Amino acid sequence: MNHLDEAASPYLRSAAHQPIHWRAWSPEAFAEAKAGDRPILLDIGAVWCHWCHVMDRETYEDAGIAELLNASFTCIKVDRDERPDVDARYQRAVQALTGQGGWPLTVFLDPGGEPFFGGTYFPPDDRFGRPGFRTVLKSVLAAWRDRRPQVAAQASAVRRAVAESSRAGSGEITGAIFEEAEQLLHRVFDQTHGGFGSQPKFPHPAALLLLTDRWRSTGSADAREMVTRTLTGMALGGIHDQIGGGFHRYSVDAEWIVPHFEKMSYDNSELLRAYVEGWAAFGDPLHRAAAGGIVRWVREVMAIEGGGYAASQDADVGLEDDGDYFTWTRAEAAAAVGAADFEVAAAVWDIGTAGEMHHAPDRNVLFVGESVEHYARRTGKPEVAVTSSLVRAADALREVRAARPTPFVDPTRYTGWNAMMASALLRAGIVLENRWAEEHALATLARIRGEAAETDHVPHDPAGAISGLLEDQLQCAMAALDAFEASQDRAWLDWALALAQRTWRDHAAQDGALEDLARGAGREGLLSAPIRPADDAPTPSPNGIGALLALRLAAHTGDGEWHRRAERIISLFGAESAASPLHRATLLLAAAWLLGDVTHLVIVGRRDDPAAVVMHRAAVASSVAHRVIRWLAPGDPRAGLPDSLIALLNVASEAVATGYCCTGTSCRAPVKNVEEWHDLLAELSSNGAPHGHA
Question: Packing angle between helix 265-282 and helix 415-431, nearest 10 degrees?
Fold first, then answer.
C-alpha cells in the first residue's frame, strides 16, 4: 500500500494516490528492503519541480510500472526540501555515476541504502534513444539477481566518491586569493548581459556580495562593473517578475529572458540582500526598485501571519502549461490594459504576437526590451508620463493575473530559509525604510525561537520531525545577530551564542570543519557518510556561514575562541576556494573578514534620546564593510569591545549622544553631531573606492 497520505510534505502527499507502494525515508523502509532482499528505488523531487510532476504522472501512475515496482522493489519517495541531507548525498552519488544530477533524482540502492545506479528523469518507455523506465527497471533487476558482486563493487566505488567529494584541504590564506578570485570571475563574466557563464544562467548572489565587498575594500572598477551589470541585467530580464516582483529560479538563456518560473524563498532572500547592498553601494534606483519588488512579493505571496514564510511558489498550475500564470499573449495583455497604456507596455515589455515560450509561441515573458528613456526619446513623450503608463499597466495586469488559477505555494516554514528571509528583510526594511519588512522579520525570528523546544537548538520545520541540520542552526544564529544589531535587545545575542555553541558541539569535526548532520542523527544509507558543505549550492555555504558567524561573535564578545574556530574553517577551505569563486563566494567573504580589520560602530546615549536613535539607525542602515554595531546606554557594560575603544569610552562624557568608530586598533575622533555621523558612515561605506557612492 501507499504510505504517503499522512506525510507532512505537500510533495509526498501529492503522490499518495499513485499505485506504487511508496514509503517515506525511514528505518522501516530499509528494514522492509533488508527483510525481502529487495533493491530500493529512491525518488527525490520537490513540489515546485516541473519534471518531477511529469515523471509522477507519466511514469509512476503507469499501472504496469507500478506492478513491477511493487513486486520487486522497496520504493522510497523524498522531498528534497524536507530532507536536504538525503538529497545532498544522493545527488553526489548520481553525479559520480553519470556526471550530472538534478530533479527528479532517480537512484537505485541496495537494502543498506548504498547507490549502484541512477539518473534523473525517465519517461515510461524508450524515447529518442533514451531508455525508458521499464527498460531501466528490467536492467536493474537483472543486475541485482545475476551480477550481485558487480553491483556491490559499484556501490562501494560510489560511496568512496561521495566521501572524497567532501574532503577538505588546507593552505595559507593571503590577500592574493581575492585578486585571483576576481580575475576568475571576470573570465566567466558575461559583459553584454551580466551574470556568469552562458546558459542556463543562475543569479549567484553570493558572488555579487563578494564582489561588492571587493569594491568597498579596493575600489576595483571590474568588481563594480560585474555587480552593477548583473543586477541590472537580471532586473530588466524575464527572470524578474516585472509586474509581481521577486525572481524566478534561473534563466534558460544567457539574456535572462526565459526563466524556469518557480520562485524559491532562498533565492529571493539572497537576491534581496544583493540588491539592497547594490543599492547602498552604487545608488542605482533600478536596483532599489527590484529590492522593493521582492519585499512586495514576499508580503503578498509568501509571508505568514504571525511570522514565517512559505518555502516556494510553483511554476505551473498543471502539467500542460509552462509558466502560463506568469506569461501573456498580446491579446490577453491588450484586453487587460487601456489602449494608450498598452502601447507603452507593449513597447517597453516587448509584448508581441510572437512570444518566447516554445510550448505556446504566442505567450510573452515580460522583460524590458526598450528602456523608458529610449521610448520617451523615440516617441517624444515625457518620461514621467511613460512611467505612469507602465505603473497603470502593471496594476491592471497584476489584477487580471490574480484572477487566474494560481501556482501552488508550499506553506512549509523551513527554519533555515525562514531565518535567511528574515535576515534579508530586516536589512531591507532598515535600508529601504519599509517598516513592515523590519517588523515581520523580527516577528518571524521570535516565532522560531518561541516554537523551538530547546533554547540552543532548532528543528528543520515547526513539526520537528527532522532536526540536527547545520544550515538551520547557523542561519538562525546569523539572523539573531542581525536582530541584535538592529534592536540592541541582548536576548538576540544570547540566542545567537547558544545556537552557535550547540552547533560547534554537535557538528564540528576534529579538524574544525562543520558537518551537515549533528552527531547522533539517523544514519540510514549514505547518511553515515559525513558531508562538509563548502559550496554555495544554491544556499550559502554552511561552512562559509559558520566562519562568518564565528568572526562576528568574536567581534561582539571579544572571545578569541570564536576567531580560532573561524580561522580553522577558512584554513581548510579558503585557499582552494579562490579557484572556484562562483561556488565558494561565502567562504571567500569569510576570508575577507578574517584578513581585514573589523570596524566597531558604537553609539553611546540614552534609549529615549532622539539623536542616539537616529545615529543607531544610520549605523545599521550603513554599508560599512566588516562592521559590528553596539548601542550603549550610560552605565552599560562594555565587555567585548576593543581595548582602544574602551579607553576612549572611559574618558568620554555620556551627556550627549556620541558615535564612536574604531577600525582595527585605529579610532576616529568621537562624533556628537548627527550630520557628521552620517558623513562618517558614508565615507566608511566607500572605503577604498575612489568614486564613492554613485
Answer: 20
pLDDT of residue 574: 79
CA dihedral sign, ordered 174, 620, 474, 531: negative
DSSP string, 456-490: TB-BSSTT-SSB-BHHHHHHHHHHHHHHHHHH--H
Q: How far apart are the first and last CA of the chain?
A: 63
Judge contact between 481 and 496, C-beta under 8 A. yes
Rg (CA), the chain: 26
Quick one: which of 270, 261, 255, 266 has its CA closest to 241? 261
Rounded CA gap, 203 and 191, in Å?
Answer: 15
Residues whose CB falls within 8 Å of the CB of residue 676, separated by 6 or more in sequence, listed in order: none
What is the chain's mean pLDDT, rounded? 94
Axis crossing angle, helix 383-402 with helix 339-348, rounded to the nearest 10:
100
Do 21 and 3 form a contact (C-beta atoms < 8 A)? yes
- CA dist list (Å): 350 to 338, 397, 659: 17, 14, 50
d(CA 448, CA 475): 12
320: Cα separation from own chain's centroid: 29
Cα-based distances in Å from 480 to 443, 634, 681: 12, 24, 23
- For 403, residues 6+ apart whose C-beta sits below 8 A from its C-beta are none
Three cell numbers at 150? 558487480
DSSP 8-state class, residue 535: S
SS3 for 362-392, per residue?
CCECCCCCCCHHHHHHHHCCCHHHHHHHHHH
CB under 8 Å to 139, separation ≥6 — which residues? 131
Backbone angles phi, psi at 590, to 5 degrees: -65, -40
Residue 131's alpha-carbon distances to 102, 124, 136, 619, 637, in angstroms, are: 18, 9, 7, 60, 69
DSSP 3-state of 660: strand
d(CA 348, CA 367): 8
Under DSSP, the state recorded for 527 is G
Distance (Å, rounded) from C-alpha 562 to C-alpha 552? Answer: 8
Distance, C-alpha 52 to centroid of its chain: 21
Yes or no: say if 4 and 24 are a contact pair by the CB < 8 Å rule: yes
Q: Are strands 259-260 and 105-109 parallel, antiparallel or unpaired?
A: unpaired
Q: Decide: helix, strand or coil at residue 184.
A: helix
Q: How confident is the model at residue 652 (pLDDT cuts 50, 70, 90)?
A: low
Helix (H) or strand (E) holding 631: strand 627-632
As to burial, measured by CB atoms within 10 angstroms (0-12 exposed, 13-18 middle, 19+ buried), residue 125 is middle
Phi and psi angles of residue 354, each rounded to the nearest 5 degrees, phi first: -105, 120
The H or E element containing residue 245 is none
Q: What tens digit of pLDDT does each residue of 163-221 get?
A: 888 777 777 788 899 999 999 999 999 999 999 999 999 999 999 999 999 999 999 99
